[in-house]
Amino acid sequence: MIHPEDTNRQPASAGHGSPQQPDDPRRRNKTRQKALAALLLVICLVVGGFLIAQNVKSTPPVSSTSSSQSANALPKPWCAASTTLSNNFSGTSISSLATNDVWSAGAQIMHWNGSAWTISFTPTSPQDVLRSVVEIAPDDVWVVGEQQTNGMPSHALTLHWNGKTWQSISSADSAVGGKNALVAVSGISADDVWAAGFSVPLQGPITPLLEHWNGTKWSVIHLSVSASLQFTSVKAFAPNDVWAAGYEYGTHAGKNFTQPATEHWNGTVWKAIVTPDLSASNGGSFYDINGDATNDLWAVGSLNNGSEMLTEHWNGKDWVIFTSPAVFPGNSNWLASVAVGSANNAWTVGRVSDSQGGFQPFIEHWDGQKWQVMQDPTVNAGELDIVTNVGKQLWIVGLPRTSGGHTFIETLCP
Fold first, then answer.
1. Could you name the CATH architecture of 92-376?
2. I need a surface site. Which of 219, 265, 348, 360 has the fewest CB within 10 A?
3. Phi, psi values for residue 377, rounded to 5°
4. Terminal alpha carbon distance of the chain
5. In what order do the strands lie in the sheet with 319-321?
6. For 252-267, how does the pLDDT look when each residue is reduced to its tens digit (9 = 90+)?
7. Domain segments of the chain as ranges
8. Residue 412 burial by CB count (10 A; 0-12/13-18/19+): exposed, middle or buried?
9. Is residue 271 within 8 Å of 222, Cβ to Cβ?
């Protein structure tokens, strides 16, 4: 197990003695006095240092914007998961109600009971792509995705767990004969579930795909959007408070670009919520949205210029950009997921390019004042795709840098 670094530990400084003096009794007395004073000073420093060290061990660190620590000197709070948790796991989405009740969707649907992963469902066709899972109750779990075919048509895919078996539930397509994909799902109750994604019609631009489950059937929700838009995330907080995030396509100065986009459901209508204009930065995209209150939401993604991550905060009235630390320029840098515990405790993960042409894992923490980069302890990690609250724990799911390896899990160290 990898433990956090002790950032309070400092290297010992080299001492320099005083110049030697001639052997004189008066000087020897003065020297003895100085030595006694120095000894008392050393004892005070040692005792004081011990008390300070004990206080540091028993007192949580306090965030401060005036801290002189660099981003790379921050602790490593993430530990490699136990082998039982990390082995035989291959999920790309996670949802849970407790640390012993976790569902994951990916190549298969798997369940963690606190001791081991078990395979709960395997698609009968490799063309069934499982993209997102949400657990509403132990006997009420949804997985959404895409049912692909050999040609252009694909269909929205929704699977439901009733506590005993998985059932395929019919869901409508927005673009008949075209591509229909659900990539995110979130729910409040057994009769209030939302799924989001995108559709590509046989002719025309890409359009958002939004569907609602009312306890009986799935219905496509048609939005009044003028731009070409696709959703990447959906988060339901209450029957009158649901958010969908993604990006819309546009043009600026004769060039195509994407602009982050959010839509909000107030219980009656869906309404587009304006985000800061990023056309001057060549645009950007949202890949995940999450929060702990209606006035404390985070949406994360990337800027198209490749030199910065994108983190925006909803304060109940406006979306506001909070700058992330600079990263190595690249055209595939992104933040894929965000987990929010409180107003001064949020985590986001993703990947960044490195100077060798590969990718490195990327972790940031929000302390209520700024985003700070956290180092990732996993050897051979290539990218991090999920950070999520599991009970009182935090889990990260990622992919190795080398091909052929299965997804891995990290947990926040105790």
1. 6 Propeller (2.120)
2. 219
3. -85, -10
4. 11
5. 284-293, 296-303, 309-314, 319-321
6. 777 788 999 999 999 9
7. 92-376
8. middle
9. no
